[in-house]
Amino acid sequence: MDDILIVNETDLRLQVALDHDAVNVVEAAFDALAGAGVVMPPVMSMDFADANGEVDVKTAYLPGVDSFAIKVSPGFFDNPQLGLPSLNGLMVVLSAKTGLVEAVLLDNGYLTNVRTAAAGAVAARHLAPPAVQTAGVIGSGMQGRMQMIAAHLERPYSRALVWSPTHENAQACAEDIAQATGAEVLVATCPEEVVSESQLVVTTTPSRDPIVQADWLHSNLHITAMGSDQEGKTEIAPDAIAAADLYACDRVAQCEIMGELRGARAAGHLRDVTPPELGQIIRGMATGRTADAQTTICDLTGTGVQDTAIARLALTRLREQGPGTPFPR
Amino acid sequence: MDDILIVNETDLRLQVALDHDAVNVVEAAFDALAGAGVVMPPVMSMDFADANGEVDVKTAYLPGVDSFAIKVSPGFFDNPQLGLPSLNGLMVVLSAKTGLVEAVLLDNGYLTNVRTAAAGAVAARHLAPPAVQTAGVIGSGMQGRMQMIAAHLERPYSRALVWSPTHENAQACAEDIAQATGAEVLVATCPEEVVSESQLVVTTTPSRDPIVQADWLHSNLHITAMGSDQEGKTEIAPDAIAAADLYACDRVAQCEIMGELRGARAAGHLRDVTPPELGQIIRGMATGRTADAQTTICDLTGTGVQDTAIARLALTRLREQGPGTPFPR
């Protein structure tokens, strides 16, 4: 039996970046998710009320692929007060033929950040209007930055807007996006300004009340909502979901529990329809945007197929390039 | 931030054995499970039909305990044909205060074997008749051996019986148990002989049809059924469950899906009662055996609290004793 490869964040960052390769493997994973034979159990989730923390475990098996990842994703939101990052975790890669552990990727959440932003790029690739002059982001955390960098890979906007409740955070985020993309990036005065001036918007907040309102929507617009990934979180008003020409999501069974679909259904919308999944649109099994003038929304809660895809990309590169520590079983 | 401790099976075997310490920490975990504040999500389970494999993920948080384990437990049952063990896996230990990964225990399933056998010993401690001259095991795999070694810690029997459909397997198992316990260990001619001659029986098979029949039961008997841990598996006939003076289990919510309780309820038994859990009996919240002459059954499907308990024992010992490889984050 081969040794188990142990790799830390420093070595993983040398191998995997938020680039076209990452977007392509995540796109292929969504495509596979719409096909036959994917096994993706519901997310395992555990709350640590005393510590303002949670841990999610995600996994998926893609048919024909010889390994799969189990991702452990803790979020402890008082950590910054201790000088520690909120998000951490690792991915375990196992053989889909024998169950043997192949690698432990001690990524501290880095690969999750990459695969989450890459999914935003996949949504933009398939659903955003072809021409995006201005893109916008509501939220100014790590994903705010990474989603905008990923969006620029697919729709190379020349101007961007950032809004966050804290002006300094928005300013710092805008500077980072400008540096990474070369676009002119400004701080917006309100979230409505972000939506009304943009053709592509990403929401990346932990909000528990809808931010984007129905009367902010306009033609020639795509919104990717990726902040809501737990029951109780929401960023898009239910009547905005209903007013869009198209609502799509990463996984219906998951979004009706923890995504924007939950609030929309609770408000009486989309009750008798099964919305299309992003993978079905990629595969041509469902209709996506049909005209530039349309308004589309894509709801991303995060799926295990993305984790398996990015972990396999990391492992392929590591095996070609060398870093990582072989550890005897 | 401290380094992450990476430990392989060889080093874990030096620190954790199937002994009274292991039984005591698992007993404490069951006790905690019956109290307030335990968070134990349902088992995450994934099937690999093409490879005759499955992967289970288990976890639990015990209040007042500063770390917890997430256990990844693959079982690929064609592996022996490849010269590989069927069971493998690892445990990840995380801080319950910050979510930071503290250790990765590359145990290849060893700690699972220990905590599973230790749970059998806990069941024997609280439910077996005080005097056990003869103990028996149905099944001759690794757990057949380990359950009998664990049972001997609590009820030091002088004679034991082993039955397995394959005589050579039963013979090899009997020799191993004799060597470990010093008891006289014989191969039984049929499973009924094991039950009728023993005061303590453990069933450790992957059976999908009941083996132990109601008319084999007798006074002064305890049976621990630990083979059924998935929907469709069963070792004890439904009317045997109904005929016993006491049916207890590790977790009702789990056993009604994957344990013996499922078949019993499907056959119309125990439908309007909530059976006692082992932890409730330990804690004195529920009644266990009340007379030596009774017949009791304990149904163990395996719980995340056992994993957290044994992983913490391993980590405590490792921090005291030294082995393991610190790995930079």
Automatic annotation (TrEMBL), chains A, B:
GO terms for cellular component: cytoplasm. InterPro entries: NAD(P)-bd_dom_sf, ODC_Mu_crystall, ODC_N. Gene3D superfamilies: NAD(P)-binding Rossmann-like Domain (3.40.50.720), ornithine cyclodeaminase, domain 1 (3.30.1780.10). NCBIfam families: PRK08291.1. PANTHER family: KETIMINE REDUCTASE MU-CRYSTALLIN. This is Ornithine cyclodeaminase. It comes from Allosediminivita pacifica.
